[in-house]
Design goal:
The chain has 2 domains: 101 residues, Phosphorylase Kinase, domain 1 (2-Layer Sandwich), CATH 3.30.200; 241 residues, Aminoglycoside 3'-phosphotransferase, Chain: A, domain 2, CATH 3.90.1200. Helix 2 packs parallel to helix 7. Strand 2 and strand 3 form a beta hairpin. The strands form 3 sheets. A 5-stranded antiparallel β-sheet has the order 1-2-3-5-4, with no helix packed on it. It is α+β, with helices and mostly antiparallel strands. Helices cover 44% and strands 14% of the residues.
């Protein structure tokens, strides 16, 4: 079905993702063992796999061409590449209507579900900046929105309002403090969207899911090698990408810790992220740089709103492992919003100092 030109040996489930079904498949290619990543796209989450794969093929093809034109000796290791099906398309379908795709396995590198060092944070953020830099020169038509309004925070707040009014699970009363907190931050929700609508912040091609395990780090050098999991790559703001790095990498505790008072900001980790990101995202405008520190607060607020909305709706979207799991997550996100607000001046100073270093006058 795919133009692999090798003999199948064996396969096994692979990775820690929760959306698509992923397998590592080993082949014999003229006496040499090679591995590929085979994935079934979850079309319940991604309603239009055709457009999703069109986005991925355009972005990865452009990245590969740009790396090769620059003489990068590891061009095929620095970006995912789609192996075509026998009909030339970057995917195929099976008898049940499932969509499948294949990537070469990036050898000698791996992702980390939890960062262990600031150096890893630096390398991952630098890799995301490189990904955005490659995508910034993508020409042609605007990419498709694989999940419309994915980071449209005001619409997330409207969804929360609807969930409160409906109160389908009868939980609104116990969440009064969290509901009040969300609506008290309505102005924060609209800041980036408003700036994009006026053109002060440009729309760009962004990843939209910058968990740090979506970057492969080299086993030998720990360098950020390749950004993976491109299903949400679409138009948006680079602030969404940097903000989610801050949300996931800088808390001192896990996002579902039952004690939200423990939520503090690791400023050393924030500096590592900012230093890595600014070292590669050299295309940023002054307006984007000025909003980097705030972006973490925005995305944390948005995710907290989503957890609260799901809890009020009866836990219908996010997987839970215990009662009130989504409420614990919400409370932790909101506690981290407060912590980020308390550290905003310090984070803005870090970005300003690093910006002067990266872009000298």
């Amino acid at each position: 079905m795919f133009d692999i030109r090798a003999d199948y040996i064996h396969a096994h489930a692979y990775g820690s993702g929760h959306i698509n079904d992923t397998y590592c498949v080993t082949f014999d290619q003229a006496g040499q063992r090679v591995r590929h990543v085979v994935q079934r796209i979850n079309h319940n989450v991604f309603k239009d796999p055709l457009r999703l794969m069109e986005n991925i093929e355009r972005v990865t093809r452009h990245a590969l061409a740009t790396l090769k034109a620059a003489g990068n000796p590891q061009a095929y290791r620095r970006t995912l590449t789609c192996i075509p099906a026998l009909d030339g398309k970057p995917f195929t379908t099976d008898a049940n209507g499932n969509f499948w795709r294949v990537y070469p396995f990036i050898e000698g590198a791996r992702g980390y579900d939890e960062l262990e060092t600031n150096e890893q944070a630096y390398q991952a953020a630098r890799a995301f900046g490189e990904f955005q830099k490659l995508a910034a020169t993508l020409g042609g038509a605007r990419l498709h929105e694989t999940i419309p309004d994915f980071h449209h925070t005001p619409k997330r707040l409207e969804a929360l309002k609807a969930a409160v009014l409906l109160d389908s699970a009868g939980r609104a009363m116990e969440c009064a403090a969290e509901i009040d907190f969300a609506f008290a931050h309505a102005a924060d929700c609209s800041r980036v969207i408003d700036m994009m609508e006026t053109g002060e912040i440009p729309e760009r091609v962004v990843h939209n899911d910058t968990k740090l395990n979506n970057v492969l780090l080299d086993d030998a050098t720990a360098e950020g090698v390749c950004v993976i999991d491109l299903d949400t790559t679409m138009p948006g703001s680079v602030l969404y990408d940097f903000g989610d790095m801050v949300r996931t990498a800088t808390p001192a505790t896990r996002e579902d810790d039952p004690d939200p008072d423990d939520r503090t900001v690791r400023l050393d980790r924030f500096e590592a992220l900012a230093r890595g990101y600014l070292s590669s995202a050299v295309f940023l405008t002054d307006s984007e740089r000025a909003m980097l520190a705030f972006s973490g607060k925005l995305i944390t607020l948005e995710v907290g709103i989503r957890f609260l909305t799901d809890y009020l709706s009866g836990d219908v979207y996010f997987k839970i492992k215990r009662q009130r799991h989504n409420l614990d997550r919400c409370r932790n996100q909101f506690a981290f919003v407060r912590a980020l607000g308390n550290n905003m001046s310090a984070m803005e100073d870090i970005v300003a100092r690093l910006s002067r270093m990266e872009v000298p006058a």
